[in-house]
Design brief:
Helices cover 40% and strands 19% of the residues. It is of the alpha+beta class. It has 2 domains: 61 residues, Helix hairpin bin (Helix Hairpins, Orthogonal Bundle), CATH 1.10.287.610; 256 residues, DNA ligase/mRNA capping enzyme (D-amino Acid Aminotransferase, Chain A, domain 1). The strands form 3 sheets. Strands 2-11-10-3-9 form a 5-stranded mixed sheet. Strands 5-4-7-8 form a 4-stranded antiparallel sheet. A two-stranded antiparallel sheet has the order 1-6. A hairpin with a 2-residue loop joins β4 and β5. α1 packs antiparallel against α2. The radius of gyration is 20 Å and the shape is globular. 32% of the residues are buried. The structure holds nicotinamide-adenine-dinucleotide. The site of nicotinamide-adenine-dinucleotide has 23 residues, from α1, α2 and β3. Belongs to the NAD-dependent DNA ligase family. LigA subfamily. It comes from Ligilactobacillus equi DPC 6820. This is DNA ligase.
């Protein structure tokens, strides 16, 4: 039995690591995200059931991908984490219940759209943009300052001369993605699988002139060391960033009940097609920053936040069913 489980784990790890390489390093995935997520969930379950058999090279041990050669490396003094994820409202309710039990009270959650792009970090010194990087493996990222400077949504000077690191998502708007792929098709170049991979491929160019032509944009969603600025909640952090002149997604909503959280999910599940950018779910963040500090993080994800992923589009599921029946 053990040998069989070990074999199954190894097969999943090998598949997931190949898909991660294609997704994070080559920016050319060969499977849909839900296929990756299903295999990942299967591996997590096996590892929970057989903790002694957990392998060192399991993707559940680490964040994201490799750091590409060709870029200078940036140490993230505060690690850039991923997010735990759930795929149903019931699992989400379980998460909020457990957290409430842990901290001894019901919590308010800042609900945000989960922008389907790639995480970036921006450093401002006395209000001037001086450094920008990718998440990389969470501890070490790639220095992409020159590329980020080409993105018009990133102010080179803030409205106040603050020294601050902020984090957020770089994405390619849907219409830019369609135009880019049309142009690539005409030139006989391979097309990008989705806006997320197009954004990643565009941002990790050694020639920033190429990045400049790709119409990327950003939304910021974290202020690092918020206490320095008297910020006590996530909702306040978003407002403060706006006041500094940073671009923030305006669809966030502070929810104080599970019903409100569920309504937020339903609203954006229905409206996602109308948005100018892709989202793949919603993110719940405990609004109170003291609570965030108390519950802390695992090596990979915060314990005070969670992503709810939308189910795959019907179109994708149909493709999968066909693939499985041939
Ligand atoms: P993730 O994308 O599931 O979630 C974490 C990320 O969400 C954060 O790092 C941040 O970049 C982003 N995010 C967007 N909006 C946010 C907001 N408002 N607040 C906070 N964060 C926000 O996790 P990940 O570790 O980047 O990637 C794992 C996912 O990548 C998998 O679930 C899978 O769907 C996909 N993946 C796909 C393949 C494939 O072959 N198709 C391979 C590897 C990974």
């Amino acid at each position: 039995m053990e040998a069989q489980v070990r074999q199954e784990m190894q097969a999943l790890i090998s598949k997931l690591n190949t898909w991660s390489q294609e997704y994070y390093v080559n920016d050319q995935p060969t499977v849909e995200d839900y296929v990756y997520d299903e295999a990942y969930a299967k591996l997590l379950k096996l590892e929970a059931d057989y903790p002694d058999l957990k392998q060192a090279d399991s993707p559940t041990n680490r964040v994201g991908g490799k750091v590409l050669d060709g870029f200078a490396k940036v140490d993230h003094e505060i690690p850039m984490l991923s997010l735990g994820d759930v795929f149903s409202k019931a699992e989400l309710a379980e998460f909020t219940q457990k957290l409430a039990e842990n901290v001894g009270q019901d919590l308010a959650y800042n609900c945000e759209l989960k922008i389907d792009g790639l995480a970036i970090s921006l450093t401002y010194e006395k209000g001037k943009f001086i450094k920008g990087s990718t998440r990389g493996n969470g501890l070490i990222g790639e220095d992409i300052t020159e590329n980020l400077k080409t993105i018009k949504a990133i102010p080179l000077t803030l409205k106040e001369p603050v020294s601050v690191e902020v984090r957020g998502e770089c994405y390619m708007p849907k219409d830019s993605f369609v135009k880019l792929n049309q142009a690539r098709e005409q030139e006989g170049l391979p097309v990008f699988a989705n806006p997320r991979n197009a954004a990643a491929g565009s941002l990790r160019q050694l020639d920033s002139k190429i990045t400049a032509q790709r119409n990327l944009s950003v939304f910021l969603y974290y202020v690092m060391e918020p206490e320095k600025f008297g910020i006590t909640t996530q909702a306040q952090a978003l407002k403060q960033m706006q006041a500094w002149g940073l671009k923030v997604d305006e669809h966030a909503h502070l929810a104080t009940s599970q019903a409100e959280i569920d309504a937020y999910i339903d609203q954006y599940h229905d409206q996602r097609q109308e948005l100018a950018y892709e989202i793949d779910g919603i993110v719940l963040k405990a609004n109170d920053l003291t609570t965030q500090k108390i519950v802390g993080n695992t090596v990979k994800v915060p314990r005070w936040a969670i992503a709810y992923k939308f189910p795959p589009d019907e179109e994708e599921t149909v493709v999968r069913d066909i693939e499985w029946t041939v």
